[in-house]
Structures are given as structure tokens and as C-alpha cells.
UniProtKB/TrEMBL annotation:
This is TetR/AcrR family transcriptional regulator. Keywords: DNA-binding. PANTHER family: ACREF/ENVCD OPERON REPRESSOR-RELATED, ACREF_ENVCD OPERON REPRESSOR-RELATED. InterPro entries: Homeodomain-like_sf, HTH-type_Tx_Regulator, HTH_TetR. One of its GO terms (molecular function) is DNA binding. The keyword Cytoplasm does not apply.
Amino acid sequence: MPRFSNMEREKIREKLMQEGERLFTSFGLKKVSIDEIVQAAGIAKGSFYSFYTNKEHLYMDISGNLQQKMWREMDEFLNEHRTLPPRELCKQCFLWMFHQLERYPMLKQVDNETAEHLYRKLPPEVLAAHTRDDSHELIKLEEYGIHFTCGIDIATKTLQTLAVSLLNLQQDQTGDRQIIMEIILDGVLKEIVSDESN
């Protein structure tokens, strides 16, 4: 197992994230190989495994990083719209995130096939860490008066499933996409978000 200083580890990890995002965005998760990733990053294949168990693990790390950026940007949106009723604020928040995906092409490409592939290939602890990160972000929504009626774990998994379903709608080139998204969001949020802020 190669030994790296902390600075070397950080630089290699940064390069893997950068090149991984570029390759995954260009070719999709399934068509990119570890050999292509390490060649682009300029590291040995053995070094890759000092950081990640497989390419799906790298993909999930990149996705998580992009989602964190989006969540940070969402704080400004939430502050500007905090006077909306809680359920409507949550809905507008989701719609805002989906419109922001234009800036995050790798996230925009996620569909059922990609999600199923990740669930098959990723170690359970990586999936659990991703769910914990999402739960942490949902807990922060409570600062804006959004309260989940079903518990944060159920809300997180429900909204993760919803997100993948809404991403699949991107294939719909008709003008109905926005209407369908809003109908689905209204139905789900009615079940899991209290419309009272206290």
C-alpha cells in the first residue's frame, strides 16, 4: 500500500475528484474504467485503492461534494423565501435545486439505472454515510420552520427516492415536466412535511 503525506493525499484526492467528475460527466458511470481514471489523474492503479474501494465509491464522493455545494447555495434561497409556509418553502426549495442541476451536469445525469448500479456496487457503509449527510442537511431545514412528520430517516430516504424519480423526468422533452414535478412534490410533501411552522 503506497504511503503519502497528508499534502500528497489531499492533492491526489483532489485530482481524482476533478478527473473523475470530468470523465463521469462525459461518458457516464458505467463506461468509465478505473484505468482511465488513474491515467487521467496521473497515478498508479494501486494508489487508487488507497483512496477508494471502486469507481462507484469515487463517483459517490464526487456526487456528495457537488450536493454539499448545492446545499450551501440553497441557504441563500431559503433566507430569501423563509416567509413562505413550510410545505411550500420545501417544495420551492426542491424545484430550485432541480433548476440548479444545469450547473452540475454529473448530478443531472443520475437516473434509476445509475442509482441501482450504485446500490449494487457500493459498500453499505458508503451508502449509509451518504444518507447521514442528506439527513444532516434536512435537519438544517428545521431552522427555516420545515418539520418532517415521519422522522428524519424516513424523510431522507423518501426524498432521495423522489429525487431520482424527478431526475428521470428530465428525459421528458414535452412542456409537461414542470407540472408533473409539482404534482409529485405536492403529494409527497403533503405526507411528510407539516404545514405549520411551530
